[in-house]
Amino acid sequence: MSLPHTPSHDLDRRAVLRRAGLTAAAAASVPFLDIPSTRAAATSAKDPDRLFKHGRFAEAERAYRLLLRGDPRNAHANAQLGYIALLSNRFRMAECHLSSAIDLNPADTGSLRRLADCFVRQDRHARAIPLLNEIGTPSTKASATQYGHLGASPYRISGPAGTRVPFRFLDPVPVVEASVNGSRPLTFMVDTYATLDLAPETAKDLGLRAVATTSGVAGNKPVTIYLGVLDSFRIGDIEVRNLPVQWSQGGQRPTLPDGSTAAGAFGTTVLYHFLATMDYARRALVLRRPRPARRSDGLPLWLAGDHFPCSLGSLRDDGPRVVTVDTGGIGHGLDTTVEIAESLGIPVDRAHPVGSVNGIDIYPIRPDRISLGRAVGRDILGFAAEKVFPGLPGPGLSAAFGFDAIANFTHDFYKPYAVTFDYTAMRLRIASHRRRA
C-alpha cells in the first residue's frame, strides 16, 4: 500500500533512524550465542539447536535433556538448558545448568554472562561482579564496577502495594512523571527496550557522578556511556532506592507535545520488579507488587539479554513465532525485514523509503493483520528493512539472542489495549477491557 509523502511521514523517517541508533546501543550489552556451525547445519527436525533457533523452546529443552541422558558432561547442552531456563526466569535451574556448563567449558563467556544476568535479575548483584570481571571486556568490567557501588540492597522498594500513574502524554511514546533523588516531578518515557537512562542534562542537574564508563553507539555514532547509581526513583506512590542508571551525550530524544524533551526513559530493568501494566486505552501505568500467578493464562513471556521482552506473535496467517515486545517505537506498530514481509505477502512500499541506516533502506508496510494472541491490529503502519542490521528492533537482535525474532511489535499496535508484563509467572497479558489475550 502506497503512503503519501507528508510531514507526518517525515516524522516516521526521523523516528526509525533514531530508534535504530538507540537500539544498537542497547543491543551492545547482549552476549552473542556461541553455537558451533556444525550444529547449526544439522537438518534433523529433532536437532535441539534448530528447535531453539526457531523459538521452539519447550521442544528444544526436551531434546537437550535427551542429550544429557546420554552424555551428562555435554557442556553445550548444559549451556542451552541454562539459557532456556533463564529466558523464563527459572533461576534455580538456570544457575544449575549454567554453572555446570562453565565448569565443563571455562571459556564459555556466553554462559558466564548469562549466569551474571541470572543473579542481576534476582538483585543479587554482588554474585554477578566476579563473573563480569572474569569475562573481562570493557563493558562487563564497567558493569561490575557500577554494581560494586550498589551496596547490599539494590532496588529496595517501599510504598503501597500498587500505584497508578497517568500518562502525561500517549504520543510519541507513553510518558509519565517520576522524581529522581527527591527532585520535582520529571517526565520519563516508558520504553520496554530501555533500562534506566537519563538525559545528560538531567544527570548534570542532579549532580550525578559516573562510577564507570563504557562505549556504545547512538545515532550510528560512537558514544561514551556513563554509569552511576541513583539513591531514589519515585513513580507515583512507590519509591525504588539504590538502583543503577546510565546516561550518554549521543542520540536524539523525541520532542514531546509541549515542545520539551523527556528527562529520561525507563523500561524493563525497572518494570520487571513489579507486575506492570501499560494501560494504553486508559492512559496510565499501573505498578503492583509481584504476586504468585498462573503460568497458563495469557501469552508466554521471555526475557532476552537484560531488558528485551519476547513473546509469540503472528504476521497475517503466519505463526505464532517469536517477536519482541517494545513500547518505544515512534509513529508505527511493527518492525521487520523486507524478506520476511514479502515472504508473507505483505506489500512493501519501495516508492517511499522512510530513510536508511548504514546504507540499508527502510520502507513502509501496512500488513492487513498482525496479532499477539487475540489482540489484533489491522492495517497498522510498520517498517521493513532491506536487510538486517545491528539495532534493527526484532530481527536485528536475532544473532545476539541466538534465536529468530521475526518482528518487533511496538507502540501503535498497543493503543487499544492494556498490556501487563508478569515476570513472576512469565506471562504477557493483553486486555481490551472486555477480553484478555
UniProtKB/TrEMBL annotation:
It comes from the Bacteria. InterPro entries: Peptidase_aspartic_dom_sf, TAT_signal, TPR-like_helical_dom_sf. Transmembrane segments: none annotated. This is Tetratricopeptide repeat protein. It comes from Actinomadura litoris.
